[in-house]
Design goal:
three-stranded antiparallel sheet; 222 residues; 9% strand; alpha+beta; elongated
Amino acid sequence: MANHHSRPAGQRGYVLLAVMLLMTMMLLTLSIELPRIGQQIKREKEEELIHRGNEYKNAIKRFYRKNGRYPLTLEDLEKGNNMRFLRKRYKDPFTGKDDWRLLHVGEVQLNLTGGANSTSPPPILGGGLNPPPASGGASGTPGATNPGGSVASETGGGNQGNFGLSGGGGPIIGVASSKKSASIKEVDKKDHYNDWLFFYDPRLEQQQQVGVPNPNPNPKPN
């Protein structure tokens, strides 16, 4: 009788051991897959950051071409002169908030190549400089691209861009993320999200119009 009752108990022990082994394998699998999933989610947020940053940059570009000046607030992009230049206000995908760092005229210094070097602010109405004439069909400016081909910022890498930021206010030339974390992807050799600058500067279009070649016509995304 003792042997008869001992077999079910032994079988229960084997079942419990099998369950424990299965749980251990599942935990090991999760420990391997979770970091990979986290990296993939981060990459997707990076692409979304590039897309949304470019939405603001292109809206500022359209506003500038229409009005001959930069917007003073982001609200100008939504209802400036009864025209909507920005489809909607976007949140920073890394902060989940509409807390973009605004880039103002004079805060971004750009050194152009090909004899057109300049560190002066781009032209704005009322500042003694005339804006360049709007050119329908302008294709934008050279820059790092995401897989969809949108410009991530206004330099093409190498030594053509030299950025410096300082405090200030006034007309808005672009936006940047307020997230200071390190990135997976590099944009213009910048590996922190707050260093990815999305701005419009008409001098880059003037550079193309005078025949200065784009040194990086088709950059590959990282």
